[in-house]
Amino acid sequence: MQTTLARSVQFVGMGLHSGRPVRLTLKPAAAGSGIRFRRVDVRDRDGVVPARFDAVSDTRLNTRLSNAAGVTVSTVEHLMAAFAGAGLYNVTVDIDGPEVPIMDGSARRFLRDILEAGLVAQAAPLQVMRIVSDIVHREGDAEVRLSPYNGLKISFEIAFDEAAIGRQTASFDMSNGTFARELADCRTFCRRQDVEAMQAAGLGLGGTLENAVVVEGATVLNPEGFRRVDECVRHKILDVLGDISLVGMPILGHYQGVRAGHGPTNRMLRTLFDRPEAYRIETCTPETARGLPGAGLCPADLAKVG
Question: Which of 114, 220, 262, 287 is most buried, by the most CB atoms less than 10 A from its CB?
């Protein structure tokens, strides 16, 4: 079945790139609505921006969505990952600025408050996309592959010259509360020189050690260090879950990424939709539902969110 929120949830936080406070309100939505952002500060044109892969207009540093009127919402990936990780499919997101607040750089606060608000089952069937043949997308040394799998599995590999990160690999089946336990608290990360370059270009103005992990060589500049030894690659998997949820329905498949990011992932999805023989749309059965992200969440998993 489809789901929505039992009650509205509100967040206030800083925009990572604008450095300005943003108010975000998640509201219950009717079955079949999907996820929609509504720019409440825009009054001279259509302020509704759909959370869809084909509405992605920029993937540099984050995922940005746009509508036909040119209204945009940036940095949607962590919130979208929280929706997918909770098994939440119909939400209206009221936002009073062009950027989702960064919070602590992870999806932890979003997921915690969503789960505390509670989800409501809706009397409407849930559609899922089953991958039936491989889709491969390559850009330079980046590769993204989507293969058949009975559930959702995400595998990722990163490699950085900085010794604090180095080469990391991780792979997770996303069922049974995996997102809450293993990924939701993993923060965005960057190198110190990247921060300096972004701020010189007028970006990353809200970035601090409270909302991102910053490394320099073998040193983690955050006093508390990493939350997990492989926090960086886990955050990449968090981003992937958010980005692929822009399909508009759960995917049954195995995503494998090597040195990839928002751009290659979105372009892989566009390739996927250009090849209808590579997937099949099905009505979700109870058996299939048990393997989706969000299925099997329990109070102990909520405690892990922190």
Answer: 114
pLDDT in tens, 197-230: 666 656 555 667 888 999 999 999 999 999 999 9
Among residues 78, 91, 75, 103, which one has the least CA distance to residue 38? 91
Domains 2-122 and 127-305 share a fold: no
Burial readout 241-251 (b: 16 or more C-beta within 10 A, e: otherwise) = bbbbbbbebbb
Q: Does domain 2-122 have CATH number 3.40.640.10?
A: no
Residue 262 annotated in active site: yes
For the whole prediction, is pTM greater than 0.85?
yes
pLDDT tens-digit series, residues 1-27:
899 999 999 999 998 877 789 999 999
Tell me how far apart the alpha carbons of residues 215 and 126 are, in angstroms, rounded to a whole number: 42
The CATH number of the structural domain formed by 127-305 is 3.30.1700.10
Confidence of residue 145 (pLDDT cuts 50, 70, 90): very high
- Marked catalytic residue, from 17, 78, 254, 262: 262
Going from N- to C-terminal start, the domains of the chain cover: 2-122, 127-305
